[in-house]
Structure formats: structure tokens, C-alpha cells
Design brief:
Elements lengths: L1 H27 L6 H15 L4 E5 L4 H29 L6 H15 L4 E5 L2
Antiparallel strand pairs: 1-2
């Protein structure tokens, strides 16, 4: 199911969204101040390519990560989370779309507060 889900996700929008995240990551990484944000954009791109079979893990939460997450939420994190939540609602209308809705919810969680989180292969 993981391979098939990732292939379908990749074909129907995952590639386009990942390219957008990669472009945003490159643009943010042009300046030294934007490198941490660019790193989070690359994390989102990695997750957009193939979200099935991956899980989000909490890393050490520092005060800098908390401040960065607050700034991220205010600037564009909440918009990204809302977009992914709407996508999850649309996917969840049909029984076939429920696994894709779960992945959209996972992406909403990551896009809301990406600092202090890591992506790893699910067990």
C-alpha cells in the first residue's frame, strides 16, 4: 500500500507541490538569515514527494525552536495548515480518499510547526 499510495500521490500533485517547496527553499536559503526557513521548506518538499510510510517525530524542543515555530505560524504556517486541512476534508469524502486524507493531516501537522520535528521511515 505504501508504494502504490506514494505513486498515486506523486502523480496527482505531490511532484508539483514538492517542486514549489524546493523553489521556496532555494529562495529562502539565499540569505544566511533565511537558511533555517529554507531547511524547513526542504523538509516539507521531502514529505510532499512521498508521505506514505513516513512519520513525524518530535526532536528536542528548544526555546529557539519555539520562537521559530511561533514566527512560522504567524507568517505562513497557519495558511499551509488550513490548505492541508481543506485537502484532507476533500479527500475524506470518499472511502478511497481516506488514506490520502490521513497524509494531508500529517502534512498539516508538519506545516503548522516544522521546527523541532524530524521525518523518518515508519516502523
Amino acid at each position: 500500500m505504501t508504494l502504490l499510495g506514494n505513486i498515486i500521490w506523486f502523480i496527482f500533485g505531490g511532484l508539483i507541490e514538492a517542486i514549489g517547496w524546493w523553489i521556496a527553499g532555494v529562495l529562502w536559503s539565499i540569505t544566511i538569515i533565511g537558511i533555517p526557513v529554507g531547511k524547513q521548506c526542504f523538509k516539507m518538499a521531502k514529505m510532499q514527494i512521498a508521505p506514505f510510510g513516513k512519520e513525524i517525530v518530535e526532536k528536542n524542543n528548544s526555546s529557539i525552536g519555539l520562537i521559530a515555530n511561533i514566527i512560522w505560524i504567524i507568517v505562513f504556517g497557519w495558511e499551509l495548515a488550513v490548505i492541508n486541512l481543506v485537502s484532507a476534508l476533500i479527500f475524506g469524502v470518499t472511502i478511497i480518499g481516506i488514506p490520502f486524507a490521513k497524509q494531508s493531516l500529517k502534512l498539516a501537522y508538519l506545516s503548522l510547526m516544522p521546527f523541532g520535528k524530524d521525518i523518518r521511515k515508519a516502523k
